[in-house]
């Protein structure tokens, strides 16, 4: 353990003076000191994490007091009691951050990073047939004449899917009352972007989704422009871990999945630590590989996938099983799933749907299959991320992916069914068009429907295309 004397020596070398002598047992603790006269006045938000399973350290307010910082001014957020690892977001200068980095009980100190969601353009529900048929899907990916086959009508019932994204329009018809508002880092639960609602629909929406019996829980950490901060994702995951710990003692609970279709331009150790903590708490994690057409091992959270992790990183394929040109690849990618021209729910109305492409769209396909597998073996898979990942990869179709995998396994998502066991006829209740969805906005959305796509008349198509975002 680094001692106070080592820290003090570093401070003195920097031109500071120690104001308080160390006391017995003060190893690793910050003693009061004066910053160098020429230290920077610029402050930034830093994320601090303690080592996992370290529950004996002092409260963050204790550290701040000894740095002569007022916690009410600089402490922006901190972990919920019982969440592991413990963390805090502190606004401070670089010199303060250096002191934290010297402490033996501190694992990570890094600046808050920007987070953006993945998405490209266009989509259709061919993906449901792809994951449930060895023959795959043929024809136009813009059609709706595909068959979803499954051998367990529970379809993820009892599983909590936390969609950590731009928000979810929980009132959308496809969620059939199963979607709830959970947490928001922005002060609003409105999905002004649409990305999160689309992802949620693929994971668990009726007609368009895989796990049509699962609970969809909105965790809004990204803004209406599809971007946000790493500290907000940590706040959202912290809430998920705490809620999971409450839920797992309740009757009928099966398990929890964090579905995260976003990524950073680079890595963030603090975010990685919270994800690892969630996995240790028994929460399953599915993440998008990224849309840069490069090695997925270069960014958080995609780089957490691979052989030595419980996190599942998902790449994208098209209807011909070809790796999407935009999809990241490499050894951190565990599995590939439908990600081009995916049709799902949209946030501008309770019966509006939209096309999108991206590894963001592939990720919730995997989330949905994970949920359905969990309901088939609750005792063995419900809260065992390592076992579920092994089951998911063993169930996948091998050797069907076409293109350069960059060293990843050649595995294509499967729900374990081959053929048409049952036609998809789940009961999804849609609002009458003369009511809420008879609004001018809904009628305008219906007016842009593309003539060569046969759509269920109870839905309105928002657009045939969506802008590429990263």
Automatic annotation (TrEMBL):
InterPro entries documented for this protein: PCSK9_ProteinaseK-like, Peptidase_S8/S53_dom, Peptidase_S8/S53_dom_sf, Peptidase_S8_Asp-AS, Peptidase_S8_His-AS, Peptidase_S8_Ser-AS, Peptidase_S8_subtilisin-like, Peptidase_S8_subtilisin-rel
Q: Which GO terms describe its molecular function?
A: serine-type endopeptidase activity
Span of domain Peptidase S8/S53: 156-399
GO terms (BP aspect):
proteolysis
Pfam families tied to this protein: Peptidase_S8 (PF00082)
What are the boundaries of the signal sequence?
Answer: 1-20
Q: What keywords is this UniProt entry annotated with?
A: Hydrolase, Protease, Serine protease, Signal
* UniProt similarity note: Belongs to the peptidase S8 family.
Q: What protein name does the entry list? A: Peptidase S8/S53 domain-containing protein
């Amino acid at each position: 353990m680094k001692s106070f004397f080592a820290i003090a020596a570093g401070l003195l070398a920097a031109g500071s003076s120690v104001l308080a002598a160390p006391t017995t047992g003060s190893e690793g603790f910050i003693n009061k000191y004066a910053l160098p006269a020429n230290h920077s006045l610029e402050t930034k938000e830093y994320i601090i994490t303690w080592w996992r399973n370290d529950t004996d350290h002092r409260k963050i307010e204790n550290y701040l007091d000894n740095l002569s910082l007022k916690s009410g001014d600089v402490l922006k957020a901190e972990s919920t009691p019982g969440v592991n690892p413990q963390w805090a977001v502190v606004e401070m200068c670089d010199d303060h951050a250096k002191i934290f980095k010297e402490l033996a009980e501190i694992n990570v100190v890094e600046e808050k990073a920007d987070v953006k969601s993945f998405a490209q353009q266009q989509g259709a529900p061919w993906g449901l047939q792809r994951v449930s048929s060895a023959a795959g899907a043929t024809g136009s990916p813009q059609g709706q004449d595909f068959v979803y086959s499954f051998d367990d009508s529970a379809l993820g019932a009892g599983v909590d899917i936390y969609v950590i994204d731009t928000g979810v329009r929980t009132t959308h018809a496809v969620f059939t009352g199963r979607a709830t508002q959970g947490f928001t880092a922005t002060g609003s639960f409105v999905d002004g972007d649409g990305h999160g609602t689309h992802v949620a629909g693929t994971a668990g929406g009726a007609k368009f989704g895989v796990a049509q019996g699962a609970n969809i829980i909105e965790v809004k950490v990204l803004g209406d422009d599809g971007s946000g901060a790493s500290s907000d994702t940590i706040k959202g995951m912290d809430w998920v871990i705490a809620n999971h710990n409450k839920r797992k003692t309740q009757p009928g609970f099966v398990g929890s999945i964090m579905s995260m279709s976003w990524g950073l331009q680079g890595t963030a150790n603090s975010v990685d630590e919270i994800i690892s903590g969630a996995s240790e708490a028994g929460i399953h994690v599915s993440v998008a590989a990224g849309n840069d057409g490069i090695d997925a091992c270069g960014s958080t959270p995609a780089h957490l996938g691979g052989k030595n992790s419980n996190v599942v990183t998902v790449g994208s394929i098209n209807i011909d099983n070809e790796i999407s040109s935009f999809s990241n690849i490499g050894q951190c990618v565990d599995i590939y799933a439908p990600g081009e021209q995916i049709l799902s729910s949209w946030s501008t109305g309770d019966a509006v749907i939209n096309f999108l492409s991206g590894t963001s769209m592939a990720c919730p396909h995997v989330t949905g299959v994970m949920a359905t597998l969990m309901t088939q073996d609750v005792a063995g898979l419900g809260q065992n991320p390592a076992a579920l990942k092994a089951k998911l990869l063993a169930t996948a179709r091998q050797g069907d992916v076409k293109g350069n995998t960059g060293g990843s396994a050649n595995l294509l998502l499967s729900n374990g069914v081959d053929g048409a066991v049952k036609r998809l006829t789940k009961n999804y209740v849609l609002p009458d068009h003369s009511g809420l969805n008879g609004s001018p906005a809904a009628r305008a959305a219906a007016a842009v429907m593309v003539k060569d796509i046969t759509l269920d008349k109870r839905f309105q198509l928002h657009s045939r295309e969506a802008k590429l975002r990263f």
